[in-house]
Amino acid sequence: xxxxxxxxxxxxxxxxxxxxxxxxxxxxxxxxxxxxxxxxxxxxxxxxxxxxxxxxxxxxxxxxxxxxxxxxxxxxxxxxxxxxxxxxxxxxxxxxxxxxxxxxxxxxxxxxxxxxxxxxxxxxxxxxxxxxxxxxxxxxxxxxxxxxx
Length: 149
Hints:
Blueprint: E1 2-5, H1 11-19, H2 24-27, H3 36-47, E2 51-58, E3 61-71, H4 75-78, E4 80-89, H5 98-112, E5 115-120, H6 127-135
Parallel strand pairs: 4-5
Antiparallel strand pairs: 1-2, 2-3, 3-4
C-alpha cells in the first residue's frame, strides 16, 4: 500500500467511499457521471494551498482516503494546525488497519508542515469512529458546533 495526493482520476473512487455508509448515503451522490459539483470542489481544493486528499492505493486501486487541510493561525503564537475530514476505507478492505495507516500518514504530513495540533470532528452517531480515534490518541477536548447555511 502506498499513500499519495489524490488526482482527478481518483474522484469516482473517493466519492463512492464517501457515499458508502448510512450517513454518507444521505448526503453524497455517487453516480456515473459524477455530479459536476465534485469536480468543482476538487478544483477549488487544488487551487488552495495546504488542502489535499490523501489516498491509500493498493494494486493501483484507491482503497482509502481522507482530506487534510493545513490551517495557519494567529492564536497560540501563530500555531499551525491541521484538520482531518472525510476519512473512509473501502468496505472490502476494512479491518486491515488501513484507516490507522491513513491517519498516521496525515499526522506525518502535519508534522512536516510544522503543525502543532491535529484536529478532527466525527459525527456523534459514529460510535465506532470515536473509539478508533481515541485508540489513536485523539482526545475529546472540545464540543464541536456547526451551522448549516
